[in-house]
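Late entry, evening session. Most of the bench is empty. Finally got around to the prediction I had been postponing all week. Sequence below, unchanged from the version circulated by S.P.
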Amino acid sequence: MAYVRVNGAGDVVEWPFKLSDLRNENPRTSFPGKITEQVLNRYDVHEVKKLPEPAYNPDTQFLEQEVLPVRVGGEYFIGFEVRNMTSQQITSRAKQKAKTAFDKEEESIGSNFSEQEKRIMLAAYDEARRFEMDNTAATPMIDAIKAQVYPTRTRAQIANILINRTTTYLQSAGIALAQKIQAGG
């Protein structure tokens, strides 16, 4: 909860005000653990209620809390003002939003595979690329996949499947993830 200290006329004297300050300023007073509204009012201290946030576009605007609470009908409220971002802030916000989305996507996609599975996938991809360039190259991984998964497909077809699926995965996960895996991290 937030509190304000006011003068006899109800004007704000101290904002925000902490209950620990009230206790420190009155060392000879024994306050209960939870100070009631009536006790607070004797010391000209009042709870400040937050008004609901107004509607705003978080991509181009931000909320700024008003400087001082306002008295309405004997109660104190603090509201918010909608402020427009500068073009630099909008650009920065868009970059941060894109980075956050990328990080979430990377985390989501990357969590589908163990580190060992990621290394195997990249090794199979590298083998498929080598085979694509030289169809006489040794292909132990492609041969194992042919024997266990696609017995009716050719090595070229399997290499194509590996390249396409790994490329899709890497595009989804992002280049940073691929570099991290290749670096052994």
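Two things to note before I forget:
The chain has two domains: 2-84, 88-182.
DSSP finds seven helices and seven strands in the chain.
Will write this up properly tomorrow.
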